[in-house]
Amino acid sequence: MDVVTWVSRGCLLLVFALSVHGKVRGRRAFEEFTESVRALVPAFADRARPLAALVVAAEATIVVTLAVPGSAVAGLALCAVLLAAFTVLAVTASRAGSSTPCRCFGRSSTPLGTVHAVRNAALLALAGAGLTATVLSGPGHAAPATTATAATAATAFLAGGVLGLLASVLDDLVALFRPLP
Question: 37: which residues sit within 8 A by CB, 6+ positions away?
Fold first, then answer.
């Protein structure tokens, strides 16, 4: 159970850290993200900037809660809520044939669509597995107790980070396998 917890924390911490960085690395990046929110969530078009700021704040909160011992349950629960919303948004955009770029990790020209929905659903499943494992392990398993368990936790956390890195460059990986125009 602890391995699932550490893999999920490593993966989701990196995914959301890269996501926050991509959206706030400069004024232009945040403006582009705000424009994508305006286009993808037309019901909130007049409140796109506060909604974009709320999304970034939620993602930053996830990073902090997944990094701080004892707050993983809150971080994984917030991950699940946010990823569920992102999955619904990607499915909706895909069905509508939207051409609005994802901006999930900053600069991307790939329209939000099915690939993003699948990625978000996979991350949602990981958040659910991590949340379940963390709750079942109980509060006594928040930190590794021995050197062996600490090494296992570190390895699992790094493996999760690799998964998170792959998830964050998914647009590039998919582009490698698309036929040339």
Answer: 44, 48, 51, 52, 55
